[in-house]
Amino acid sequence: MFGDHVDTDQIIPAEYLVSENLDRLNEFIFGKVRPGIASKISKGDILAAGRNFGCGSSREHAPRSLIQAGISCIVAESFARIFFRNSINTGLLLIECRTDAKEGDIMTVDQDNGKLSVSGKEYAFPKYPEFISSLIAKGGLMEKIREELK
Predict the structure, then answer these.
(1) CA 49 to chain centre
(2) Exposed site from 70, 83, 142, 148, fewest CB < 10 Å?
C-alpha cells in the first residue's frame, strides 16, 4: 500500500537505470522509500496506492521493474498519464478505483466484469475497451505486434 504522488524515481531510482541492471530492475524497486520490499513481493501481487501514482519523469523502466518484480496489477485512485500509457504498452494492468485498502488486504480483480474485491468488500471500476484489454493480455504493445507479424 502506497499513498499519493508516488513518482517514477521512487518506483525505480535513476541510478539503477544502467544497462547491466535492465534484467534485474525488480531488485531495486522502492529501494529508497521502502527498503527490502522487493524481496517481499510474490508473483501475482497487487499494489495499491492513492492519487497520481507514477508521476514524475517518463520512465518506461518503472512499469517494467514492477512487472519483473511480479506485480500483476496496480489499483490506485488515479495514475499519471504517461505512466498509464507506459504501463499499458508494457502489459501492466492498472485499475483506477478508490478503495479503503490497507497494507496486507487480500485483493482480487475481475477485469472482464469491472469488479475489484478488497478483503471481501466489492468495488466497481470502468472496464477497458477491447483493444486495450488485448494489449494487456498479450503482454504489451510489442508482444501484440510480434504476434500479428507471425
Answers:
(1) 10
(2) 148
Query: Measured between alpha carbons, how far is 140 from 95 in angstroms, rounded to an integer?
Result: 16
Rg of the chain over CA atoms, in angstroms? 15
What is the bridge-based pairing of β-strands 115-118 and 46-49? unpaired
Cell of 26: 525488480
What's the CATH architecture for 8-149?
Alpha-Beta Barrel (3.20)
Task: Supply the pTM of this predicted model.
Answer: 0.92
Q: What is the pLDDT of residues 50-105, one digit of tens each?
A: 999 999 988 889 999 999 999 999 999 999 999 999 999 999 999 999 999 998 99
Name 95's bridge partners. Answer: 75
CB neighbours (10 Å) of residue 29? Answer: 24
Q: Rounded CA gap, 45 and 108, in Å?
A: 10
